[in-house]
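Below is how a single chain appears once it has passed through the pipeline. First comes the sequence as given, then the structure the pipeline wrote out for it. We keep one example in the README because the format questions we get most often are answered faster by looking than by reading.
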Amino acid sequence: MIGVDIVYLPRFRRALEGTYKEKLIKRIYSDDELLQCSDKSDDAKIQSLAGRFAVKEAVIKASKGELNISDLKLINVHQFPSGYLEVLVSRENVTCTVYDASISHDGDYVVGIAMKVENKNR
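Resulting structure:
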């Protein structure tokens, strides 16, 4: 199954700059994801976080009901130096699900797409 999501950057930026910024960031992103975005300029950081959010939403859609919006932090989007993305979904029940993903930016929009690749037992 394939999932896709689109994010409108001005609305996403307003959410991240709003009153609940810290709470929202902690609810959505892992420490690793935040670290990967930490050395970027403000605009690049917003685009990267929006892209990761779009991929997380796409993963939820591709999971065919196994995941929901409350699972956003369980979905870890990792970008390798080559630009390749890998998404790992880890739960306490020792199953790790792997998704391939891609992000595209154009103007005020960011699109994320994800496809389930495999389930692994740890």
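The first strand starts at residue 2 and ends at 8.

See the next section for the split statistics.
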